[in-house]
Structures are given as structure tokens and as C-alpha cells.
Design brief:
By secondary structure, the protein is an alpha/beta fold. It folds into 2 domains: 201 residues, Rossmann fold; 73 residues, no CATH class. The strands form 2 sheets. Strands 3-2-1-4-5-7-6 form a 7-stranded mixed sheet. It has a 4-stranded antiparallel sheet with strand order 8-11-10-9, covered by helices on one side. Helix 1 packs across helix 9. The radius of gyration is 20 Å and the shape is elongated.
């Protein structure tokens, strides 16, 4: 079976498909840095940097499985204040319909945030896929249920050219803690009580100490994952495109490093990511967790 990866980003969908034994022959993204990252890790895959609204699908190789992660920023509640580009990012889902109309692959798997189902045009999008001969089976999946050391709930829409929607029988794997992936000997820490540390941050640290002792993780910004942080012996909260998770060790603290974020996403240990910290975290925060993609593709192969 051959696959293509639309909006491929850092490559989480591609890694998962390859772990399931699928050959990903073509990948595309509109951001050159994402394409360069994907290419560095998957040199045997053909790559294109392009706005997929403008794609000529005649130039894309034939495939059995289309994987796609249209932009989620216009749907996610985590996006913050609305900005004009959100309507544009929502429309990236139509590129999937355009690709499918030309190629008619046997299987399509689309990933997005669960709020994708609340999009005003989702019924029209689903109807367009159905008009092309696909049955849609929506799945809402927490990555922690697939052995990823992170709670991350995402929608996966499994589209098949079958008589009825194909609901996958997915494994339920044991939850994994973030603790083994934390680098306690990392050289860069700062005092919790350093000058200009916000009162809100110090209050979160204090509540975290009351709940978990001297070692725990916490959202540095906002109040996500509760006001007391998180126990390191459970999965991390959702990794976003913003550098938001801090690690507390006694009277010191620091933000998680890129390797820790990568591990929390379930990426391979030595996966190559940009040296620029913020850009690497942005790519990871937008990515599909590879173990989740692996389990979905394997279950799809079995069910098919």
C-alpha cells in the first residue's frame, strides 16, 4: 500500500504510517521549514512546498491511502483571540476533497481538533466526501490511550469506499508517564523566585508543591491542566504550538526542552528538528502523534 501525506508538517502521520508498514511516497506542506524537516527525516519521500489550494493533483503520484492534517487553528479553542486568517485556515480542509476527487484513493484519514465537527461547513465538507463515494467514520482519540506520554484529544475521520462507515477496533494501551523523558541534569535552570517572576506563576508553583512535592510539571502560562500542575508519573497535558510547559525541581524551574516535547509527542528519539527552539515547538504542537497514526493505519489494514 502506498500513501501520501498532505499538510505533512514535522512528519508524525508519515512516521506512524511507516511504522505500520506503509510506503509514504509523497508529502506536501505550505511552509518550507516543515518541508525541509520532513525531507531531512524522510529522504526517500518526494516533497513539495506548496499552498495545496493551488495543487495540480495530476502531478501527485497514485496512492491507496491519503493522510491529511488540515490546519486546525481556525477550529481550536486554544487559538485565543480570533484573527482574520482563521477563515482561510479552515478552508484547507477543501484541499482534501480536491485531491480525493482526482485520485479516488481507497482510504482517507483526516486529523484535526474535535471542534472541526462544529465548523459551520463541516456538514457540506462531509457531504462532498460522501458524494465522491466515501463513508465517513469519525473517531475521537486521546493519544495517551496509544502509549504516548501526553493527553491529546484529536479527531480522526476514517473515510472508506465501503458500503458503511468503518469504525476501527483500536488497541487501548497502558498510559505512560512523562517522568522517564524528563532531563533532570539539563544544565539550564532558573530560581523559582527570580525577580519579575509573575505572582500567578509563583501561585501555581506553590499549589503544585502542595499537591506533588518538589518535582512536577505545570503550565507556565494561563491556567490549563488545573491550577496545581501535573504529576510527572502521568502523561503530560496537551503540547501546543506555544512553549507552555514548565518543570519544577525544588527551588528551580525551567521550560521543557525540545527533546522532552518531542518525546511527549511520541516522536523517535533521534528525529531531526529545527535548531530554532520556537519553530521546533511550533512544528511539534501541530503534529500528529506517530503511535496514534500507527495504530489507526494498522487497524485500517486489518479492517479492510
Amino acid at each position: 500500500m502506498k500513501a501520501i501525506d498532505l499538510f505533512a508538517g514535522a512528519g508524525g502521520f508519515t512516521i506512524g504510517a511507516q511504522l505500520a508498514g506503509i510506503d509514504v511516497i509523497w508529502a506536501a506542506n505550505h511552509w518550507q521549514l516543515a518541508v525541509d524537516t520532513h525531507s531531512a527525516n524522510h529522504p526517500d519521500t518526494e516533497h513539495v512546498c506548496q499552498d495545496l489550494h493551488q495543487a495540480n493533483w495530476m502531478d501527485v503520484p497514485a496512492h491507496d491511502l491519503l493522510l491529511a492534517s488540515p490546519a486546525c487553528q481556525g477550529h481550536s479553542k486554544a487559538r485565543g483571540k480570533d484573527r482574520p486568517h482563521h477563515d482561510e485556515t479552515r478552508s484547507t480542509a477543501w484541499a482534501v476533497v480536491s485531491a480525493v476527487e482526482y485520485h479516488r484513493p481507497e482510504f482517507v484519514v483526516v486529523e484535526n481538533v474535535p471542534e472541526f465537527f462544529d465548523w459551520a461547513l463541516y456538514p457540506a465538507w462531509a457531504q462532498a466526501m460522501q458524494a465522491l463515494g466515501y463513508q465517513l467514520a469519525p473517531h475521537v482519540i486521546d493519544s495517551a490511550d496509544h502509549g504516548v506520554p501526553q493527553h491529546r484529544t484529536r479527531a480522526f475521520i476514517v473515510c472508506t469506499r465501503s458500503a458503511s462507515p468503518l469504525m476501527l477496533q483500536l488497541p487501548q494501551r497502558e498510559h505512560q508517564p512523562i517522568a522517564p523523558h524528563l532531563e533532570w541534569d539539563y544544565p539550564i535552570w532558573s530560581p523559582v523566585n527570580k525577580p519579575k517572576r509573575s505572582k500567578a506563576t509563583l501561585a501555581r508553583v506553590a499549589r503544585g508543591r502542595e499537591s506533588y512535592g518538589d518535582q512536577f510539571v505545570m503550565p507556565y502560562y494561563g491556567n490549563g491542566s488545573g491550577l496545581t500542575g501535573r504529576d510527572i508519573n502521568r502523561p503530560l497535558g496537551t503540547v501546543t504550538t506555544r512553549d507552555r510547559w514548565a518543570l519544577v525541581k525544588g527551588d528551580e524551574m525551567r521550560m521543557l526542552n525540545v527533546r522532552e516535547y518531542s518525546a511527549a509527542m511520541g516522536f523517535p528519539q533521534h528525529y531531526s528538528l529545527p535548531e530554532h527552539r520556537a519553530k521546533a515547538i511550533h512544528l511539534l504542537g501541530n503534529a500528529v502523534c506517530p503511535p496514534v497514526a500507527r495504530d489507526i493505519v494498522k487497524a485500517l489494514e486489518v479492517a479492510a
